# Entry
Amino acid sequence: MVVLSILPIGLQQGLAYALVALGIAITFRVLAFPDLTVDGSFPLGGAVAARLIFEGMDPTLATLAALVAGFIAGSLTGILNTRLKINSLLAGILMMTILYSVNLRIMGRANIQLLYKSTVFTFMENMDVVRFVPVILFFFLITAVVKILVDLFLHTEYGMALRATGDNEDMIRSLGVNTDNATVFGLGLSNGLVALSGALVAQDQGFADVGMGIGMIVAGLASIIIGEALIKPKTVFRLTLAAVFGSVLYRFIISLGLRLGLAPTDLKMATGFMVILALGVPAFKKTREGKIHLRGV
Amino acid sequence: MTEKMLVFEGITKIFNPGTQDEKRALNQIDLDVRAGDFITIIGSNGAGKSTLLNVIAGTHQAEEGRLIIDQKDVTKTPDYKMAAYISRVFQSPTMGTAGEMTIAENLSLADCRGKRRGLKWGVTRARKKRFRELLKMLELGLEDRLNQAVGLLSGGQRQSLTLLMATLSLPKLLLLDEHTAALDPRTAAKVSELTNRMVEENQLTALMVTHNMKQAIRSGNRMIMLHEGKVRFDVRGKEKENLTVEEVVKRFGATLKDESLLS
# Structure
């Protein structure tokens, strides 16, 4: 019964945050760039969408604006790393920190309520079914379309150059690719997706909050680790599928934990332990096969 | 075929300039390479062989002098732009290929060398067909493994693939940086033979750094020996054909202290 009752919430949240996992898969797994901008670009998406909707903009346009804002934020992290030669982890942390102030400026306060505003979900509320049915369908559709588009992109000439940048940077440079630009674009794309997720989540929950991104990177990593434990990421298709599946499974596990008495305040600690366990246990195993291959970590 | 493909005009490369570790890796080098030349480069460790290739490839920029490829001054051109002129095979088989990507994807990456990469599909059917034909020539059975990750191949297979990738869209210059040194002797001989065949068939202009004197004498139409950043010996044509390992050792044994060179 407990399992059944968490199905809708797990599915809804899992799909809503799947774009974050996809974004993290692009940076960590494809580009081998441990990008921490995510904790700032997720609320950036929420902040931009919320403020624009609050000001009366069409919610679809506001959501697209959030995506663009995320793309810019990610690109800036890339520029800090490739042009100013700042360490990749530090570049992400710097951007994340700067975005905290930026997000406060965008919203003008710590949070914006959207309860009486028209959002991309408004039309679903007037339907004759329980709200979560169309919402889950909506998130499923968005996630599926984005996943397929990312798959297709990573098989184009430029997309393959992006993958090669993460795989063997010297080689692809010697084949004429400016890997600095590829890194900047990849980080932009990743954080664009993360901000898109932030914009949709804010509209779904009815508010944007400056703290809504805390722990997002760790949750995304946990999703990817869970997903890849079940779906070996031998191809691009499977890599992105693992991210989506992992995100849904992770949210199921979290919902189940909460239902079984896990204090919501301990959630981030539990997620942190999950990631430590997944990355740490293989270190005790002597076999090579036991090692989870998570590039970028 | 007598035009100059590559010209060095007083190229000097200094590492750590102005410090105690200052080292002149290349010292006022002048060199003319004609189109169709296949030059082998020998020299002991630290003679400047790899630096020479790195300067051509744009990995290092020379402090002094001019570098001209096919009548264009490329002294200050960054490495990734040099890909329009040059392809390069490194010593380690893992350096020239992307291990997690498939054979077909690696070849497609190489097929776009120096060209604009857009949103066109990467591994097209036409490409696959062409790659299959080319891979057959390697006689390694790779034509049936187009969709396998390159990381699954052996060192020799991987280096043969790298060589094929390097010659795919004919470069103005092919740089070979001890590309057989990391292979076992039998595989090295095979890859070496494949190299000679590919350079000949495609009439490429090539520079090959090698530690193996026999290979240096047997391959190509010209051999140069570097020592302390300078060209010490430059031999071509008939004279090179008649060259023997013993003769080189007799003349330069003192400078070529490096044992491995005599293997």
User: Anything to note?
Assistant: The longest strand of chain A covers residues 111-113.
